[in-house]
Design brief:
The chain has 350 residues and is an alpha/beta fold. The protein has 10 helices and 11 strands. The relative contact order is 0.18.
Length: 350
Protein backbone atom coordinates (compact mmCIF):
# COMPACT_ATOMS: atom_id res chain seq x y z
CA UNK A 1 0.00 0.00 0.00
CA UNK A 2 1.47 3.35 -1.06
CA UNK A 3 1.66 5.87 1.81
CA UNK A 4 -0.22 9.12 1.44
CA UNK A 5 1.95 12.08 0.36
CA UNK A 6 3.13 14.17 3.27
CA UNK A 7 1.90 17.75 3.74
CA UNK A 8 4.19 20.77 3.38
CA UNK A 9 4.50 21.11 7.15
CA UNK A 10 5.14 17.72 8.71
CA UNK A 11 4.73 17.56 12.47
CA UNK A 12 6.09 14.57 14.34
CA UNK A 13 5.37 13.72 17.96
CA UNK A 14 8.49 12.29 19.56
CA UNK A 15 8.61 10.10 22.68
CA UNK A 16 11.80 9.31 24.61
CA UNK A 17 12.08 6.97 27.63
CA UNK A 18 15.33 5.08 27.13
CA UNK A 19 16.86 5.82 30.54
CA UNK A 20 15.86 8.28 33.26
CA UNK A 21 14.24 11.12 31.33
CA UNK A 22 10.59 10.96 30.29
CA UNK A 23 10.17 13.30 27.34
CA UNK A 24 7.72 14.20 24.60
CA UNK A 25 8.08 16.81 21.87
CA UNK A 26 6.54 18.04 18.64
CA UNK A 27 8.94 19.01 15.85
CA UNK A 28 8.04 20.48 12.47
CA UNK A 29 9.87 19.38 9.30
CA UNK A 30 12.62 17.74 11.34
CA UNK A 31 14.00 21.04 12.65
CA UNK A 32 11.62 23.53 14.27
CA UNK A 33 10.76 22.68 17.88
CA UNK A 34 7.11 23.41 18.63
CA UNK A 35 7.41 21.87 22.10
CA UNK A 36 9.87 19.80 24.10
CA UNK A 37 8.91 18.62 27.60
CA UNK A 38 11.38 16.69 29.76
CA UNK A 39 10.78 15.18 33.20
CA UNK A 40 14.15 14.28 34.70
CA UNK A 41 14.62 11.62 37.39
CA UNK A 42 18.14 12.67 38.33
CA UNK A 43 17.21 13.54 41.92
CA UNK A 44 15.52 10.14 42.41
CA UNK A 45 18.64 8.25 41.34
CA UNK A 46 21.27 10.46 42.98
CA UNK A 47 21.08 8.50 46.25
CA UNK A 48 21.96 5.30 44.35
CA UNK A 49 24.95 6.88 42.61
CA UNK A 50 23.47 5.89 39.24
CA UNK A 51 20.23 4.96 37.50
CA UNK A 52 18.15 2.33 39.34
CA UNK A 53 16.33 0.57 36.45
CA UNK A 54 13.20 -0.51 38.34
CA UNK A 55 12.71 2.96 39.81
CA UNK A 56 13.21 4.49 36.36
CA UNK A 57 10.58 2.34 34.65
CA UNK A 58 8.00 2.97 37.39
CA UNK A 59 8.55 6.71 37.14
CA UNK A 60 8.12 6.56 33.35
CA UNK A 61 4.73 4.90 33.83
CA UNK A 62 3.61 7.76 36.08
CA UNK A 63 4.92 10.52 33.84
CA UNK A 64 4.52 9.38 30.23
CA UNK A 65 0.92 10.42 29.43
CA UNK A 66 0.95 13.75 31.31
CA UNK A 67 4.20 14.63 29.51
CA UNK A 68 2.75 13.74 26.09
CA UNK A 69 -0.38 15.76 26.80
CA UNK A 70 1.71 18.76 27.88
CA UNK A 71 3.86 18.55 24.74
CA UNK A 72 0.77 18.59 22.51
CA UNK A 73 -0.73 21.49 24.47
CA UNK A 74 2.44 23.57 24.19
CA UNK A 75 2.49 22.92 20.43
CA UNK A 76 -1.20 23.95 20.23
CA UNK A 77 -2.01 20.71 18.44
CA UNK A 78 -4.20 17.68 19.01
CA UNK A 79 -2.96 14.16 18.43
CA UNK A 80 -4.97 14.03 15.19
CA UNK A 81 -3.04 17.04 13.88
CA UNK A 82 0.40 15.39 13.98
CA UNK A 83 1.58 13.37 10.97
CA UNK A 84 3.54 10.67 12.74
CA UNK A 85 4.68 9.35 16.11
CA UNK A 86 8.38 8.60 16.60
CA UNK A 87 9.64 6.70 19.64
CA UNK A 88 12.98 5.51 20.91
CA UNK A 89 13.10 1.75 20.46
CA UNK A 90 16.66 1.14 21.65
CA UNK A 91 19.30 1.02 22.92
CA UNK A 92 18.40 1.72 26.53
CA UNK A 93 17.01 0.16 29.68
CA UNK A 94 14.46 -2.51 28.62
CA UNK A 95 11.93 -1.61 31.30
CA UNK A 96 12.12 2.08 30.46
CA UNK A 97 11.98 1.55 26.70
CA UNK A 98 8.87 -0.60 26.83
CA UNK A 99 6.91 2.18 28.58
CA UNK A 100 7.56 4.65 25.77
CA UNK A 101 7.07 2.09 23.01
CA UNK A 102 3.75 0.86 24.39
CA UNK A 103 2.51 4.43 24.79
CA UNK A 104 3.49 5.20 21.19
CA UNK A 105 1.84 2.03 19.93
CA UNK A 106 -1.42 2.86 21.68
CA UNK A 107 -1.47 6.44 20.42
CA UNK A 108 -0.64 5.40 16.86
CA UNK A 109 -3.36 2.75 16.88
CA UNK A 110 -5.96 5.14 18.27
CA UNK A 111 -5.10 7.99 15.88
CA UNK A 112 -4.15 5.89 12.82
CA UNK A 113 -0.87 7.78 12.55
CA UNK A 114 2.42 6.47 11.21
CA UNK A 115 4.61 4.85 13.86
CA UNK A 116 8.38 5.30 13.49
CA UNK A 117 11.01 3.52 15.54
CA UNK A 118 14.18 5.53 16.13
CA UNK A 119 17.59 4.36 17.28
CA UNK A 120 18.55 6.45 20.31
CA UNK A 121 22.02 7.20 18.93
CA UNK A 122 20.54 8.36 15.65
CA UNK A 123 18.37 10.72 17.67
CA UNK A 124 21.45 12.27 19.26
CA UNK A 125 22.86 12.95 15.79
CA UNK A 126 19.73 14.77 14.70
CA UNK A 127 19.84 17.06 17.74
CA UNK A 128 22.21 19.16 15.61
CA UNK A 129 19.41 19.91 13.15
CA UNK A 130 17.04 21.31 15.77
CA UNK A 131 16.28 24.94 16.47
CA UNK A 132 13.81 26.80 18.65
CA UNK A 133 11.15 28.57 16.60
CA UNK A 134 11.57 31.84 18.50
CA UNK A 135 15.31 31.90 17.68
CA UNK A 136 14.92 31.08 13.98
CA UNK A 137 16.70 28.51 11.79
CA UNK A 138 20.34 27.65 12.36
CA UNK A 139 22.73 26.46 9.60
CA UNK A 140 22.31 22.77 8.78
CA UNK A 141 25.37 20.49 8.89
CA UNK A 142 26.65 19.87 5.37
CA UNK A 143 27.49 16.32 4.28
CA UNK A 144 29.71 14.45 4.74
CA UNK A 145 29.54 15.00 8.51
CA UNK A 146 32.01 13.54 10.98
CA UNK A 147 30.05 12.94 14.20
CA UNK A 148 31.24 12.18 17.71
CA UNK A 149 28.54 10.63 19.91
CA UNK A 150 29.68 10.83 23.52
CA UNK A 151 27.40 9.89 26.40
CA UNK A 152 27.08 7.79 29.53
CA UNK A 153 26.69 4.57 27.56
CA UNK A 154 28.27 5.30 24.18
CA UNK A 155 31.37 6.81 22.64
CA UNK A 156 31.43 6.50 18.86
CA UNK A 157 32.79 8.18 15.74
CA UNK A 158 30.31 8.06 12.85
CA UNK A 159 30.62 9.30 9.28
CA UNK A 160 27.27 10.53 7.89
CA UNK A 161 27.33 10.66 4.08
CA UNK A 162 23.71 11.83 3.76
CA UNK A 163 20.49 11.64 5.76
CA UNK A 164 20.09 8.16 7.29
CA UNK A 165 23.37 6.90 5.75
CA UNK A 166 25.99 6.05 8.38
CA UNK A 167 29.37 4.40 8.75
CA UNK A 168 30.65 3.73 12.24
CA UNK A 169 34.38 4.38 12.19
CA UNK A 170 35.18 3.51 15.79
CA UNK A 171 33.84 3.14 19.31
CA UNK A 172 35.01 2.61 22.86
CA UNK A 173 36.47 -0.81 23.57
CA UNK A 174 35.46 -0.65 27.24
CA UNK A 175 34.03 2.25 29.25
CA UNK A 176 32.13 5.04 27.55
CA UNK A 177 33.43 8.53 28.34
CA UNK A 178 30.36 9.38 30.42
CA UNK A 179 30.67 6.14 32.36
CA UNK A 180 34.30 6.99 33.12
CA UNK A 181 33.21 10.41 34.42
CA UNK A 182 30.66 8.74 36.73
CA UNK A 183 33.17 6.21 38.07
CA UNK A 184 35.89 8.79 38.68
CA UNK A 185 33.35 11.03 40.40
CA UNK A 186 32.67 8.20 42.85
CA UNK A 187 36.40 7.79 43.48
CA UNK A 188 36.61 11.50 44.29
CA UNK A 189 33.44 11.43 46.43
CA UNK A 190 31.66 13.78 44.04
CA UNK A 191 27.87 13.61 43.59
CA UNK A 192 26.00 11.91 40.75
CA UNK A 193 25.82 12.60 37.84
CA UNK A 194 29.58 12.53 37.45
CA UNK A 195 29.99 14.69 34.34
CA UNK A 196 28.81 18.01 35.80
CA UNK A 197 30.42 17.22 39.18
CA UNK A 198 33.85 16.53 37.71
CA UNK A 199 33.65 19.60 35.46
CA UNK A 200 32.79 21.82 38.42
CA UNK A 201 35.56 20.35 40.59
CA UNK A 202 38.07 20.69 37.74
CA UNK A 203 37.49 24.45 37.50
CA UNK A 204 39.71 24.98 40.54
CA UNK A 205 42.42 22.51 39.54
CA UNK A 206 45.35 22.12 37.14
CA UNK A 207 45.00 19.81 34.12
CA UNK A 208 48.79 19.29 34.31
CA UNK A 209 48.94 18.20 37.95
CA UNK A 210 48.90 14.49 37.05
CA UNK A 211 50.04 12.95 33.79
CA UNK A 212 47.22 10.48 33.28
CA UNK A 213 47.46 8.20 30.21
CA UNK A 214 45.76 8.71 26.85
CA UNK A 215 44.97 5.46 24.99
CA UNK A 216 45.55 6.50 21.38
CA UNK A 217 45.07 2.99 19.88
CA UNK A 218 47.06 3.95 16.79
CA UNK A 219 45.70 2.76 13.46
CA UNK A 220 42.09 2.75 14.66
CA UNK A 221 39.37 5.25 15.47
CA UNK A 222 38.53 3.40 18.68
CA UNK A 223 38.67 4.73 22.23
CA UNK A 224 39.55 3.20 25.59
CA UNK A 225 39.02 4.76 29.02
CA UNK A 226 39.40 1.81 31.40
CA UNK A 227 43.17 2.32 31.73
CA UNK A 228 42.64 6.00 32.52
CA UNK A 229 40.07 5.13 35.16
CA UNK A 230 42.50 2.63 36.73
CA UNK A 231 45.29 5.23 36.72
CA UNK A 232 43.05 7.65 38.63
CA UNK A 233 42.17 4.89 41.13
CA UNK A 234 45.85 4.12 41.75
CA UNK A 235 46.68 7.80 42.17
CA UNK A 236 43.82 8.25 44.65
CA UNK A 237 45.03 5.27 46.69
CA UNK A 238 48.59 6.62 46.63
CA UNK A 239 47.40 9.99 47.91
CA UNK A 240 45.04 8.71 50.60
CA UNK A 241 46.03 10.16 53.92
CA UNK A 242 44.12 10.18 57.24
CA UNK A 243 45.30 13.74 57.86
CA UNK A 244 45.40 15.51 54.47
CA UNK A 245 42.43 15.58 52.12
CA UNK A 246 42.63 14.51 48.48
CA UNK A 247 43.56 17.19 45.91
CA UNK A 248 40.17 16.63 44.26
CA UNK A 249 40.33 19.64 41.93
CA UNK A 250 43.71 18.68 40.48
CA UNK A 251 42.68 15.04 40.08
CA UNK A 252 39.41 16.03 38.38
CA UNK A 253 41.11 18.53 36.06
CA UNK A 254 43.86 16.09 35.04
CA UNK A 255 41.36 13.29 34.42
CA UNK A 256 39.05 15.55 32.41
CA UNK A 257 41.96 16.79 30.28
CA UNK A 258 42.94 13.19 29.41
CA UNK A 259 39.40 12.34 28.28
CA UNK A 260 39.08 15.54 26.23
CA UNK A 261 42.46 15.07 24.53
CA UNK A 262 41.50 11.60 23.30
CA UNK A 263 38.03 12.65 22.13
CA UNK A 264 39.07 15.89 20.44
CA UNK A 265 42.23 14.64 18.73
CA UNK A 266 40.58 11.57 17.20
CA UNK A 267 37.54 13.55 16.08
CA UNK A 268 39.65 16.16 14.29
CA UNK A 269 41.97 13.59 12.69
CA UNK A 270 38.99 11.59 11.41
CA UNK A 271 37.41 14.76 10.00
CA UNK A 272 40.64 15.47 8.13
CA UNK A 273 41.04 11.94 6.78
CA UNK A 274 37.43 11.69 5.56
CA UNK A 275 37.34 15.29 4.25
CA UNK A 276 34.29 16.13 6.32
CA UNK A 277 32.47 19.35 5.52
CA UNK A 278 31.15 19.55 9.08
CA UNK A 279 31.91 18.20 12.54
CA UNK A 280 29.08 17.26 14.88
CA UNK A 281 29.32 16.50 18.60
CA UNK A 282 26.27 15.09 20.39
CA UNK A 283 25.26 13.17 23.50
CA UNK A 284 25.22 13.98 27.19
CA UNK A 285 28.98 14.47 27.55
CA UNK A 286 28.90 17.09 24.76
CA UNK A 287 27.51 19.41 27.44
CA UNK A 288 31.01 19.47 28.96
CA UNK A 289 32.27 23.03 28.42
CA UNK A 290 36.01 22.28 28.04
CA UNK A 291 35.22 19.51 25.53
CA UNK A 292 33.04 21.85 23.47
CA UNK A 293 35.73 24.52 23.49
CA UNK A 294 38.52 22.10 22.62
CA UNK A 295 36.76 20.67 19.56
CA UNK A 296 35.48 24.06 18.41
CA UNK A 297 38.98 25.60 18.54
CA UNK A 298 40.46 22.68 16.60
CA UNK A 299 37.62 22.77 14.05
CA UNK A 300 38.16 26.50 13.49
CA UNK A 301 41.84 25.84 12.80
CA UNK A 302 40.76 23.19 10.30
CA UNK A 303 38.22 25.66 8.82
CA UNK A 304 35.42 23.13 9.21
CA UNK A 305 32.08 24.21 10.77
CA UNK A 306 31.45 22.59 14.15
CA UNK A 307 27.86 21.85 15.20
CA UNK A 308 27.25 21.22 18.90
CA UNK A 309 23.64 21.43 20.13
CA UNK A 310 22.68 23.77 22.96
CA UNK A 311 23.21 22.10 26.33
CA UNK A 312 19.46 21.53 26.75
CA UNK A 313 19.53 19.24 23.69
CA UNK A 314 22.73 17.37 24.58
CA UNK A 315 21.01 15.21 27.17
CA UNK A 316 18.16 12.83 26.33
CA UNK A 317 15.08 14.56 24.91
CA UNK A 318 12.19 13.74 22.61
CA UNK A 319 12.82 16.58 20.14
CA UNK A 320 15.83 14.75 18.75
CA UNK A 321 13.75 11.56 18.38
CA UNK A 322 11.04 13.49 16.52
CA UNK A 323 13.69 15.04 14.24
CA UNK A 324 15.15 11.65 13.31
CA UNK A 325 11.63 10.27 12.95
CA UNK A 326 10.80 13.00 10.41
CA UNK A 327 13.63 11.93 8.08
CA UNK A 328 12.60 8.28 8.39
CA UNK A 329 8.99 9.23 7.69
CA UNK A 330 10.16 11.25 4.69
CA UNK A 331 11.94 8.15 3.40
CA UNK A 332 8.74 6.12 3.75
CA UNK A 333 10.04 4.11 6.70
CA UNK A 334 7.52 3.13 9.35
CA UNK A 335 7.24 -0.07 11.34
CA UNK A 336 5.19 -1.90 13.95
CA UNK A 337 7.93 -1.67 16.60
CA UNK A 338 8.05 -5.37 17.38
CA UNK A 339 10.00 -5.33 20.63
CA UNK A 340 11.22 -8.91 20.16
CA UNK A 341 14.16 -7.61 18.12
CA UNK A 342 15.69 -4.22 18.87
CA UNK A 343 17.65 -2.71 15.98
CA UNK A 344 21.42 -2.55 15.95
CA UNK A 345 23.18 0.62 14.90
CA UNK A 346 22.32 0.74 11.16
CA UNK A 347 25.79 0.08 9.74
CA UNK A 348 24.23 -1.60 6.70
CA UNK A 349 22.79 1.75 5.66
CA UNK A 350 26.03 3.10 4.19
Amino acid sequence: MTPHPLPSFVRVLGIESSCDETSAAVVENGRAILSNVVASQVDLHAKYGGVFPEVASRQHILAIYPIIEEALQQAHLSLNEVDGIAVTRGPGLPGSLVVGVNAAKGLALASEKALIGVNHLEGHLYSAWLYKTEAGPTPEPQFPVLALIVSGGHTELVLISEHLKYQRLGATLDDAAGEAFDKVARLLNLPYPGGPSVQKAAEGGSPFAYNFPRAWLEGTWNFSFSGLKTAVLRQVRALEDPVNSLPVSDLAASFQAAVIDALAMKTIKAAQQYQAKAILVAGGVSANKPLRQSIQIRAEALKVPCHIPPISFCTDNAAMIAAAGYYRLLAGQRDSLDMDVLPNWPLSEV
